[in-house]
């Protein structure tokens, strides 16, 4: 009897300690924190890299204006993200999986307390770099012909109405993520949304003056190749950092990222060589970026051989979109944002449903049902991007106008919009 009483007392004393151990709060891991600090810096560097990538492909009279299109997003969306963007994307759900509330407005409650194994404020900053480059991607579609004032209003509205809710749908506890769709680092959130919105923008704003009769070759391909290198470099943080830990998943993502980029670059290069008779620097750069786009949604879910196939598909499909679909339909997507990011993102999202084998299974690894949420996610993203972007453009056009006048376009945006010249004698 005494033994039973003693055992009962010991258990009663031990149970609270066991409960505390089981419910112990998350703790910050220094290794994970260091990796996400580095990844955040890498992804931030992608936006200046994108600026160089785009600016080298336009005419010399528009080089500063094109650089500014990306750089302004670092300034503008950084502030928007702190004030309300992060809250709409990642605050506790406010409307049936559609959007977050405003409980994080102005980063209220977002400090150095743990979010997983990293500080909450670091997670916020890492995600903010994604928001910045997503809207910057769109600018390549309307390069050389859009008012800077209209761009600023569009960027604020688009990020608030399209990007932030979509981010919540997929990563912030919203309905697409709850459905089981896989998007490791932004196939739908970043690339399909920006690519499809870019297509809508270039159609609404209209073609460049004398397009396609007037030949407008890239003015500085070394600049574009440097931008490609910075994008590829930064993409290791984009995809590897999306593991949110310095672990094996990050390694898987980085291996897949490099493999797919290389495969797609080779594919584009050789298809172009066969099709046009010459392998070009621009083709190699475009193919590599297409591969980086294509692998983004599945980077942490696929092995190297699957990454090779995804890269091959990205290089082939994006080349077809740029060299055949664009001339066939006649739209003027200046720097092929839809052909690379839209088509590459759609392929990548669907390919993730086919080839996922690490942490999730796709169709070819025994789970055909994974294709359903992948398809739904793609379709929902396209619908949101098309409808919202069209409405936003009509509003912006009514307020300040979208397009510069003919004289300003002929003069070039560097002088007409910014009063500067990229090259002086």
Tell me the layout of helices and strands.
Elements: H1 2-22, H2 30-55, H3 63-90, E1 114-115, E2 118-119, H4 120-138, H5 148-170, H6 175-179, H7 187-205, H8 221-240, H9 248-276, H10 281-295, H11 304-329, H12 337-355, H13 371-399, H14 406-411, H15 413-418
Antiparallel strand pairs: 1-2
Helix pairs in contact: 2-3, 2-4, 2-8, 3-4, 3-5, 4-5, 4-7, 5-7, 5-13, 7-12, 7-13, 8-9, 8-10, 9-10, 9-11, 10-11, 10-12, 11-12, 12-13
Compact overview of the structure:
The protein is mostly helical.
Largest sheet: 2 strands, antiparallel
Separate helix tally: 15
The percent of residues in helical segments reads 55-70%
Gross geometry: globular
Estimated structural class: mainly alpha
What does this 3D model show about the protein?
The protein is mainly α. It has a single domain, classed as Ammonium transporter fold, CATH 1.10.3430.10. The protein has 15 helices and 2 strands. The chain has helices at 2-22, 30-55, 63-90, 120-138, 148-170, 175-179, 187-205, 221-240, 248-276, 281-295, 304-329, 337-355, 371-399, 406-411, 413-418; strands at residues 114-115, 118-119. Strands 1-2 form a two-stranded antiparallel sheet. The longest helix has 29 residues, at 248-276. Residues 1-23 have low confidence and may be disordered.
């Amino acid at each position: 009897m005494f033994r039973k009483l003693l055992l009962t007392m010991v258990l009663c004393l031990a149970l609270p300690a066991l409960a505390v151990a089981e419910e112990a709060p998350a703790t910050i891991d220094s290794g994970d924190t260091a990796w996400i600090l580095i990844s955040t810096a890498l992804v931030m560097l992608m936006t200046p890299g994108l600026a160089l990538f785009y600016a080298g492909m336009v005419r010399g009279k528009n080089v500063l204006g094109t650089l500014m299109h990306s750089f302004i997003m670092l300034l503008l969306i950084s502030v928007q993200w702190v004030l309300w963007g992060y809250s709409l994307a990642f605050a506790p759900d406010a409307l049936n999986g559609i959007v977050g509330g405003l409980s994080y407005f102005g980063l209220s409650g977002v400090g150095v307390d743990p979010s997983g194994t990293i500080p909450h404020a670091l997670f916020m900053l890492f995600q903010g770099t994604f928001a910045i480059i997503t809207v910057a991607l769109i600018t390549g579609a309307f390069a050389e012909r859009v008012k800077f004032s209209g761009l600023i209003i569009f960027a604020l509205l688009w990020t608030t109405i399209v990007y932030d809710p979509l981010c919540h749908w997929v990563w912030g506890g919203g309905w697409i993520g709850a459905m089981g769709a896989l998007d490791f680092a932004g196939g739908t959130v970043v690339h399909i949304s920006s690519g499809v919105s870019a297509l809508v923008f270039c159609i609404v704003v209209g073609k460049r003056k004398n397009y396609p009769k007037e030949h407008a070759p890239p003015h500085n391909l070394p600049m574009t190749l440097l931008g490609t290198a910075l994008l590829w470099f930064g993409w290791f943080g984009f995809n590897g950092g999306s593991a949110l830990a310095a672990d094996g998943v990050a390694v898987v993502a980085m291996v897949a990222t490099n493999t797919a980029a290389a495969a797609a670059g080779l594919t584009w290069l050789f298809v172009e060589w066969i099709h046009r008779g010459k392998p070009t620097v621009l083709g190699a750069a475009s193919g590599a970026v297409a591969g980086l786009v294509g692998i983004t949604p599945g980077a942490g879910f696929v092995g190297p051989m699957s990454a090779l196939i995804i890269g091959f598909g990205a290089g082939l499909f994006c080349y077809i979109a740029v060299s055949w679909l664009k001339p066939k339909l006649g739209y003027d997507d200046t720097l092929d944002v839809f052909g690379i990011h839209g088509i590459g993102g759609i392929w990548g999202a669907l390919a993730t449903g086919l080839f996922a084998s690490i942490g999730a299974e796709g169709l070819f690894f025994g789970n055909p049902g994974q294709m359903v949420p992948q398809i739904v996610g793609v379709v929902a993203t396209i619908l949101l991007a098309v409808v919202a972007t069209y409405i936003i453009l009509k509003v912006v056009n009514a307020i300040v106008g979208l397009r510069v006048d003919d004289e300003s376009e002929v003069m070039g945006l560097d002088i007409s919009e910014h009063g500067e010249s990229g090259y002086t004698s």
